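[worker-b] picked up task from shared queue
[worker-b] task type: protein-ligand structure
[worker-b] ligand name resolved to zinc ion; SMILES cross-checked against name lookup, match
[worker-b] sequence length check passed
[worker-b] input payload:
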Amino acid sequence: MRAGIVVLLAAMGVGAAAQNNPASKSVERGDMDRSAAPCDNFYEFANGTWRAQNPIPASMQRWSRRWQAGEQNKDRLRTILDDLSSSEHPKGTPAQLTGDFYAACTNVKAVDEAGVAPLKASLAAIDAMHDAAGLQEEIRQLHAVGVFVPFGFNSAQNQHDPANMIADVGAAGLGLPDRDYYLKPDQRFADARAGYLQYIAKIFTLAGSPEAEAKSAATTVMDFETALAKASLDNVALRDPSATDHLMDYAGLEKMTPHFDWTAYLKSAGVAAGVVNVDQPLFLAEFERQLTKTPLAQWKIYLRWQVLNNAADTLSQPFVDAHFEFYQKQLAGVGELKPRGTRCAELTDGLLGEALGQEYVKRYFPPEAKDRAKTMVNNILAAMHDTIQGLDWMAPATKQKALEKLAAVRVKVGYPDKWKDYSSVKIERGDFFGDTIAASRFLVADDRGRINKPVDRSLWGMTPPTSDAYYNPTMNEIVFPAGILQPPAFSLQNVDAVNYGAIGVVIGHEISHGFDDQGAQYSASGALDNWWTAEDLKKFQAKTACVVKQFDGYRIDGPEDIHINGKLVLGESIGDLAGLKIAYLAFKKTPQGQSTELIDGLTPDQQFFIAWGQFRGDETRVETQKMMVQGDPHPVAKYRVVGPVSNFPPFAEAFQCKAGAAMVRPESERCVVW
Ligand SMILES: [Zn+2]
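[worker-b] inference finished, payload out:
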């Protein structure tokens, strides 16, 4: 049923675009490096000149026109927030909440004068714990304001009954990015551990501990977290949905952690007992062990640390600097903090995002942009439909299921139909720290309020100004916030080749996530439910193994021989590979895609591929690349550009590449998943 609608809209969309399309903007010719051959080094060819002329700003991890636009988007938020904070608004309105929050955040003098004082009560409560019951009460209090240590507790769709929400208990409580940072011998992890120890000691010193005590506390924290890390899954294991799929009732949960009072926990969380998913049973076993074996004095140090580290960014400058020096400078290679106003805009977006987003879309997201983006989405969905239909390796039974799933994909564009109501949050101009706690408390309560209820499909997982997009497998939905439907990803002025090569591939990428190694395990309804015949699943896995091997072969920049982890980036790479293909196929149905008329000296197909290279390409700090290969399921930018094009024959045709060129994988190694 829906597939029919999709195809119909697709046909209308093409006609409408052709009739009144004033678009004339093509790729940025000046960004290209014409001295590089597209078939040998497409990355350089597409935007090497821009990267050479625009070094990464000191405050950024990565840089490209796209990242630049992302920062300009934050300038827009600052403009909005400057406006809103310059006058008074009725209490509880989006304007009051965001304006006063921003005013409080940018009042550096008040924040600096307060020092660590805003945390006094919280730290005193930890000091006052005198038994196991006190420890558990403290864990409950911290969870209520979003400090989820050592485990997480939030709402999630039931993967086996996605129409309903349940509670999900996850692993958490680490200060380093993931388990490998605690356990692996590689130099970069050893350096991170040494830096983390110093950082912990520094924060304890700033909070008033004598130096020797701060140092020994740092060791205690490291030991405590290392034990948690040992019981945690690594990033590759976490990509397997069945690895974190353990439904049970609360009796089961109590059996796993007999020393934790779940009745008291649920009562304080305002949640009734029901079905619960435990992501990582081994982690909960370790939590149980810590509850019974770890002396209270060590728990106090660990919780003090977690409270301080969670708040460091919102305290006075010395805390902010220490936090930056470790997480941004040492781990990611960044040189300096972003301006305070930008950081405050980011935080407002993070805590009150849909309040801020209402004003953002009013000013910066015209209805025509929404219509045009929706048309593109429908055209690309139709291309995926044709692609699945045409597969020669898939049995009709599996195809049928794949098409059902595609037809059920929900599309969200721009901003929510129903805005989150923050009117109960108390935001005061003079109390920045209190404001962050009030907003966090609201968000936690809001999330807990969904547990044991039917799923609310109107909710968004990103705020409207976000320059990003996502696929949610249990919702089976693709979501494109207004923030990414902006240049250079998308513009009403762009020619079709550029829009399809940039945002089009993003749209194709998100659609394809429904059919990547993870997404393909979820059915049309969003249930974790195998819909493949055994034989087709085997063929699919052989196809995805090709992509793993391809990306395993890529190494990041820098002197160390560090490779991309093909298994970690598999889902994203399938998304890029299939996304490029279906965006291209949809583009080929537009009048421009069918034309051979040159656009600014380039063929329409060349424009399409260069647009992809220019949109996706960036310059990334080597330290950031090291972090990415470890924890980011996305490959570094260079391989997101050249990885998919080198598997895609129309690219070679567009630039007349010869067999054997670097950007043309030999047929025997060419990866095609969809
Ligand atoms: Zn993705």
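[worker-b] attaching auto-annotations
[worker-b] Confidence is low (pLDDT under 50) at residues 1-20.
[worker-b] releasing lock
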